[in-house]
């Protein structure tokens, strides 16, 4: 005797409705039922009756056999295949439990299948990249250097402490130029063409630090501080790098440059003095520029480093992009999800500040996982000191956790919990916001639907799993 079982078609019904571009209200009108009943059917809280099955087939001209197929059996089969992956080998997964999950919780089943699909495709992409052979990715040293800095929250205690001691010596000597003079080094300012378009060069034979005379005051001071970092802080920088092994010399060279810049910033903005001023001024970047005689971008850099144990301040992520969207710098002082890939979402105001150069734009942000941030963005200008010399306009942005935004003058008295956040993604390939009209490419792990039934406003529509 045949077994009479209730027919549950929730996920299949939901896929059908979405593929045809229908709302629950529209489907309810077509089937002459209530929207709440459609919702119950889609959540498998009501079985599909024979009458409802006939209505679906007649209204949408579908084959009853295709509609009435057992989703539970299909999910069970697919989940069983997925759970054979070696990553699950040490977990006891009885067949009965898998069947119960597929039948009783189709939504959870869809989520697991989608996650595994994304995982498998990413693993395949990584395997293909590695199979191509080492050394073919010219940006690998840059990424390796970024990971090194991010893994340490962009804070290096030995360098910062040495910089504070040196800053006190320099102040007592009457300034960096006078301090270098005491070390037997003369500072000279020369036209860029004499320096062969260099900004800074150290003439070791004559013990002269040569600087381009077109640099502004903040840039001159920073280049002098960079030279001091390369010489007087060499031991601390080398020890920091010696503790790690890198895939190639290029990574070590990039990090030597980055840590010298870190040391220069620490000299110009000593940790204790700068951290106190930042807190007192509400992290007002322009005010800090005036107090320490540095540039907007230099202050933004330094704000990412305030993670000394016991003296932590607001944690910031920093990014710098050009008008084409190329990311030329990332610094992470807070362990944010932006660290490895962030910066590619056009909905983030860092890509829009080029329209209003020099003005600060603030924005509340929300990632797909629900994490919320507060962002400050502005353009900065490099080069161009002299007629006919090329100027480079870039945008920089700082982002902090939304719950810390109240400590910033830029957030005013806003309540972070009540501020609506702009929904952004880390990058299109990792963002699963299906309704985003600004999407450039599909996310990893999602199958794109054909548009014969429906052409949505967003560039792509996706299958359920």
Automatic annotation (TrEMBL):
UniProt similarity note: Belongs to the short-chain fatty acyl-CoA assimilation regulator (ScfR) family.
Record-linked SMART domains: HTH_XRE
Entry's transmembrane regions: none
Protein's name according to its UniProt entry: Short-chain fatty acyl-CoA regulator family protein
Signal peptide from the UniProt entry: none
The organism of origin for this protein: Novosphingobium mangrovi
Keywords, in A-Z order: DNA-binding, Transcription, Transcription regulation
InterPro entries the UniProt entry points to: Cro/C1-type_HTH, HTH_RamB, IrrE_HExxH, Lambda_DNA-bd_dom_sf, ScfR_C, TransReg_Diox_bact_type
Superkingdom classification of source: Bacteria
PANTHER family attached to this UniProt entry: HTH-TYPE TRANSCRIPTIONAL REGULATOR (PTHR46797), HTH-TYPE TRANSCRIPTIONAL REGULATOR SUTR (PTHR46797:SF23)
Residue ranges occupied by any HTH cro/C1-type domain in the UniProt entry: 13-67
Pfam families: HTH_3, Peptidase_M78, ScfRs
């Amino acid at each position: 005797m045949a077994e009479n079982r209730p027919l549950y078609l929730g996920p299949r019904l939901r896929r059908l409705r979405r593929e045809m571009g229908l709302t629950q209200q529209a489907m309810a009108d077509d089937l002459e039922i209530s929207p709440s009943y459609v919702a119950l059917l889609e959540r498998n809280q009501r079985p599909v009756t024979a009458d409802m099955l006939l209505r679906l087939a007649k209204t949408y001209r579908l084959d009853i056999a295709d509609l009435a197929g057992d989703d539970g059996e299909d999910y069970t089969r697919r989940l069983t295949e997925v759970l054979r992956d070696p990553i699950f080998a040490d977990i006891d997964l009885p067949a009965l439990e898998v069947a119960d999950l597929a039948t009783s919780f189709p939504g959870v089943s869809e989520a697991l299948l989608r996650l595994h699909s994304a995982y498998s495709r990413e693993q395949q992409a990584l395997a293909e990249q590695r199979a191509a052979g080492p050394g073919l990715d010219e940006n690998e040293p840059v990424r390796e250097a970024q990971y090194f800095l991010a893994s340490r929250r962009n804070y290096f205690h030995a360098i910062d402490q040495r910089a504070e001691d040196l800053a006190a010596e320099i102040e007592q000597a009457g300034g960096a130029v006078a301090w270098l003079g005491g070390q037997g080094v003369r500072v000279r300012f020369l036209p860029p063409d004499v320096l062969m378009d260099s900004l800074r060069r150290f003439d070791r034979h004559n013990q002269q630090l040569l600087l381009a005379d077109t640099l502004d005051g903040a840039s001159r001071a920073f280049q002098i501080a960079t030279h001091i970092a390369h010489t007087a802080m060499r031991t601390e920088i080398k020890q920091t790098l010696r503790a790690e092994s890198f895939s190639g010399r290029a990574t070590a060279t990039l990090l030597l440059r980055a840590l010298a810049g870190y040391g220069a910033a620490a000299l110009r903005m000593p940790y204790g003095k700068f951290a106190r001023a930042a807190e007192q001024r509400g992290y007002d970047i322009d005010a800090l520029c005036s107090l320490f005689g540095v540039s907007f971008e230099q202050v933004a850099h330094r704000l990412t480093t305030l993670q000394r144990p016991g003296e932590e301040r607001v944690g910031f992520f920093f990014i710098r992009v050009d008008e084409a969207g190329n990311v030329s710098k990332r610094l992470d002082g807070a362990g944010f999800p932006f660290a490895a890939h962030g910066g590619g979402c056009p909905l983030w105001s860092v890509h829009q500040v080029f329209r209003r150069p020099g003005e600060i734009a603030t924005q509340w942000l929300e990632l797909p996982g629900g994490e919320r941030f507060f962002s400050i963005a502005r353009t900065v200008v490099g080069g161009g000191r002299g007629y006919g010399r090329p100027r480079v306009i870039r945008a920089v942005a700082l982002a902090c956790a939304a719950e810390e935004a109240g400590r910033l003058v830029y957030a005013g008295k806003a309540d972070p919990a009540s501020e609506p956040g702009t929904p952004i993604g880390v990058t299109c390939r990792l963002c699963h916001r299906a309704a985003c009209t600004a999407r450039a490419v599909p996310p990893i792990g999602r199958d794109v639907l054909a548009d014969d039934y429906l052409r949505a406003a967003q560039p792509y529509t996706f299958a359920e799993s």
